[in-house]
Each structure stands twice: as structure tokens, then as C-alpha cells.
Amino acid sequence: MQADKLFEKIENNNPVDFGDIFTKSIDLFKKVWSQGFIHLLISMLIVLPLVLIMYIPIFALAGLAGFEPGYSGYDYGHEELSVGLGILFVILVIVMSMLASAFQLGIMAHFYKVCKQADMGSSISSSYFMFFKGKYLGKIFTLAIASFGIALLAALLCYLPIFYVMVPLQLIGVIFAFNPDVGTSDIIKASFKLGNKVWLVAFGLILISSMLAQFVGFLLCVIGVFFTASFVYLPIYFLYKDSIGFEDDETKNEGSILIE
């Protein structure tokens, strides 16, 4: 879908209904819960090493402090080293956070494609890394950096704006998934444009679905959270489908995607 067509559909979006979307999300979850679990595992296998890398400066500083004889605290000789490692830690946190966000965005975008395939009764594709190839790779990193910057700015403004940007930031993934050829700035603009129109319903769905996913997951011996976590994304999928919809040619081509 071209950017102008996307904006036109958002401008003339169909009304969304909280109850209808929530009911359809539960029905779809029964079809995609296993795929949701697989996508979560893939994200964890990618993100956890990045988290460990962030703590290398801390491990290095602790090693220098622990293996030096007679060392009983930070002295002036270690102050410069401590500051340097501290700065390195901050830089690593920012870089690794954006990398993790980019990988999660790519995996999440594929999950939205799986949701559509299951919803339409098509064969489910297992190309989990389809958005990590070619021109899409740079785009997911750019979107991750932009999302990080928006969230950071909202947090710096006394956190209250976080509640507003929460909805557009959640919509970035689904808009990118079904409009990957649209420019980065247009995807962000479309996310905020749609977010403004469906904010109240979207915020309620995100809040309730998150609480329900965690509650049911904890009831299933805590480990069930890994199986219910993907439920949060399903109302977002239906928000996009019910308000914007899909192009006819895209829907027809969906049936030709087979398991690889």
C-alpha cells in the first residue's frame, strides 16, 4: 500500500468496537498461541545475549576490584577507570537497547503476518526472519531508533506523555508489517495519525489484554506467561484490520505463502 493510500484509509477509517475486537482476539489466540510462543523464544534467544553484553563493563570493573590484593574500595587510581567504564556502560545500554528493539520489531512484524494468515485461513509461513533481509533491515533499525527516541522524550517529560505515545508506538509494528515499502517517516506519521483516532479503544485493549495475559499466565504455574504473552498483539492486529483493512491484491497473495 502506498503512503498516500494509507493516509487516505486512516483519514476515512472504519469505526472500531472494543468488545468485537476483544472477542475476535480470543478466537484468533486459539489458532496462533503456539506461533506466539515460538516468536517469543526467538526474541529471547536474540535479546538475552545483548543484555549480557551490556554488563561487560560492570563485570570488568568488579574483576579489577576483586582480584587486586589489599583493595578495599574505589581509590583515586581507579576513579578515571570507573568513569570510563560507566560511560561505556551507558553507551552499550543505548546501543544494545536499540538493537534489541530492532530485532523485536522484525520478529513482531512477522508475527502479525502469521496472525493474518491464520485469520484468513491461509498456510502459515515460517520465514521468521523475512524482515531482516535487504531493504527492510535498515528500516527496522531506523524505526527502532525513532521509537526509542520518542519513548525517551516522553519519559523525560515527566512520564505522563508515555500514556499517549504508548498507542502509536504499539501501532508502528503492525503498520510496518503490512506496509513495509512505506517510508520510515510515513510509518511513524501513520502510527500517530491512526493512534489519535482510536486512542481510547486502543489504550483500553492494550491495558486489558496485558493484564489478562499476565493473569492467565501466572495461573498456569507462572511459566504460562510465555504462552499467553502474544495475546497482547492480537487486539493491535484487529485494530489495524478493522480500521484500515488490507489491499485486495495483498489478501489474494497471502494464500500463496507456504511453509518454508
Question: What does this entry look like structurally?
Answer:
With 260 residues, the chain is mainly alpha-helical. It has one domain. It is built from ten helices and no strands.
Task: Give a concise summary.
This protein is mainly alpha-helical. It has helices at residues 3-11, 18-54, 56-66, 76-120, 134-156, 160-178, 184-219, 225-228, 233-243, 248-254.
Give the secondary structure arrangement, pairings included:
Blueprint: H1 3-11, H2 18-54, H3 56-66, H4 76-120, H5 134-156, H6 160-178, H7 184-219, H8 225-228, H9 233-243, H10 248-254
Secondary structural class: mainly alpha
The N- to C-terminal Cα distance equals 25 Å
Rg over CA atoms? 21 Å
Envelope shape: globular
Helix content range: over 70%
How do the helices and strands follow one another from N- to C-terminus? Answer: HHHHHHHHHH
Number of domains: 1
Estimate the mean pLDDT confidence. Answer: 84
Number of helices: 10
Question: Which ranges are low-confidence, i.e. pLDDT below 50, for 5 or more consecutive residues?
Answer: 67-74, 255-260
Largest sheet: none
Bin the strand percentage: under 5%
Number of extended strands: 0
